[in-house]
């Protein structure tokens, strides 16, 4: 199962980090559309943030694992664009989880 964990700031509800772990095991390696969908959405979001905001997220990635902490920027408009892209990622991953609930789970937690 793929587990998506989204951490939000208790103060302002912004996404402060996310982690995606595991494998869907929906199909054989190379044919797993669930894994491919989650990977495309998450890696695409990290790439979009860098390209559209100029902010390189500190992301770590290896097989079955992607994690990033979201740095707060001095420019509020950049923070807003980053958050919009992250919220878009959350919606897309939740959509995948609704369709493939045996294979993907999205969790949210608050950061104290």
TrEMBL record:
One of its GO terms (biological process) is ribosome biogenesis. InterPro entries: Peptidase_Prp, Peptidase_Prp_sf. Keywords: Hydrolase, Protease, Ribosome biogenesis, Thiol protease. GO terms for molecular function: cysteine-type peptidase activity. Pfam families: Peptidase_Prp (PF04327). Belongs to the Prp family. This is Ribosomal processing cysteine protease Prp. It comes from Paenibacillus phyllosphaerae.
